[in-house]
Amino acid sequence: MYRNELDPDAGPGAAFGVRLRRLRDDRGWTLDDLAARTEYSASHISGVENATRAATPKFAKRADLAFGLDGTDGTLTNDVQRIRSGSLLEGFPEYVASEGKAVEVRYFETGIIPGLLQTEAYAGALAESALRRGSITADQARERTAVVAERQKALRRTPAPLIMAVLDESCVRRPIGTAAEWSAQLSRLLEFAEQPHTVLQIAPFSMGVRRTVDLPLYILTMPDRSIVAYAESATQGHLQRDGMLVAPILGTYYQLQADALSQPDSAAMIKQIREGTS
Fold first, then answer.
1. Residue 85 has pLDDT above 60, yes or no
2. 92-274 fold
């Protein structure tokens, strides 16, 4: 089985994987040994240890029983509960750690402007809305906006990464914040498009079924030229590092770019929306 030496500070999934492996190694168990005790496959356990598969409460409970942690204060089940109650989607911290090292970043977003391109006011309005709904706490709202600010340091790196963003038209049609804040956010997009290391395109509603991607998708090229992809469902995110699986995703993204508006036409649409003429 593949054994990746994880940094526990890379995110909650990585920290969980490191702890799970340490518990197993301390007992001298192989993956097959733990598999027999939990009734999960060795490949499943390897995925959790390498942070390529999210741990579920059911998995954590069986691991607690296998390790003799059930009924103690330091259960793996408690770790999973803490991860799931956090402000960030499971899997996203691992993505952020990789994004900060990437030499090329490709985005597709729908409905919401990506964090890397958000103004502080836009990010704050999103966090405040979630806070009012009761879906996050005040501390978690602050964490979300802090993560956005931290991610944007990538724009100031030397050399700066190549960043390509394809935004569904819904991203620039859905006003967030006050009128002034929304206008400032649209201006930020236009400023982003003018940078020498960026490409901004709008996937217009008129694309219809030609829009090849339905959910948010992020693709990273790392310094060693390996490519990883990150996608989200309603409950968790997943960072895919298997090149054989990422290659077709990258091909789909190229098709999306080919049918989206050009950067000049995309900028013209954003200007029209900002000026209230479209």
1. no
2. Endonuclease; Chain A (3.30.870)
